[in-house]
Amino acid sequence: MDPVQIARVYFDAWNRRDAAAVLATFTSDGTYSDPSGGRGLRGDALAGYMNGLWAAFPDLSFEIASVGATGADSVAAEWIMRGTNLGSMMGLPPTGKSIQATGADFIRTRDGKILSVEGYFDTRSVPEQLGLKVNVWPEALGPFQFGTSTRVSSGKAMAPGAFSITVLKQRSPADEQNVANAARQIAQEMLGMPGFISLVTATMGDRMMTIAAWESPDHPAQVMHAGTHPDAVRRFFQTSGDQPDLGGAGVTSVWTPHRKNTMWVRCGSCNKMRDREASKGTCSCGGSLDESWPYW
Fold it and tell me: pTM of the predicted model, to two decimals?
């Protein structure tokens, strides 16, 4: 097959949402790169990336707007991607919204198969069409790393009696997505557990962490014995199985507060800061204090 025919077979496999068929179009050392999935994906990593996209957009399709050879062993293809967000994307619940985005792939071939795909598209387009806020920052700047965070709250405003902290190192975008999916399910389950107050998750570079606040040091243990967490631990330690393993390194711990200072709340009537607990919800001026502001 010439490069244009190879490209058409490749896109046909994507449109059939057949990961094995897509991988079959590549040479044994063939790689895939794009601004979202990262660089140099191949084998299981590329399959994980594709399956993540198809899980988020089950009807994902590519219309070839133009395609042409750029050399004896290369081809360029401009495409229009369409799909409906019916599954989780970046750990978020589905929006049900449809998207349309344009991009281009530059494909190099060797001996009738794909040696490399370099994809280019506007990474802001899809999130913005889904109603998501897009912030741009560097991945790292000197000693500072940047990323994203999420907070889940039970609505309790009490001071925590303990914090459970989990830190995982992810190895690829597909690994990050798998960890995020498990973490989101665990967070949903934690909302129904006795003693749970709230949690904050953060992803920075290859580091993913969860800091959960509990009423007492005994409460975090229940996560280990119910729901999704035991299966996530199994996948963390597994060497083979029917599900992808999770993470390249990790640590868990439980911390208790050394000192908890006063929760200060500004009075809406006199504008003075008041000790919320000592004031028992009422300022000396007679105004009411906000008792719903959480410690964590």
Answer: 0.61
When pLDDT is cut at 50, 70 and 90, the band that residue 89 belongs to is confident
| Same-domain check for residues 182 and 282 | no
Is 291 domain-assigned? yes
Q: How confident is the model at residue 15 (pLDDT cuts 50, 70, 90)?
A: very high
pLDDT tens per residue across span 248-287: 999 999 999 999 898 899 998 999 999 988 888 899 999 9
Domain residue limits at 20: 3-129
User: Do 111 and 10 reside in the same domain of the chain?
Assistant: yes
Tell me: pLDDT of 289 over 90. Answer: no
**Residue 207 in domain:** yes
Residue 174 CA to chain centroid, in angstroms? Answer: 9
What CATH number does residue 7 fall under? Answer: 3.10.450.50
User: Residue 121 has what pLDDT?
Assistant: 94
Please indicate, yes or no, if residue 48 is contained in any of the structural domains.
yes
Does residue 141 lie within any of the structural domains?
no
Same domain, 150 and 251: yes
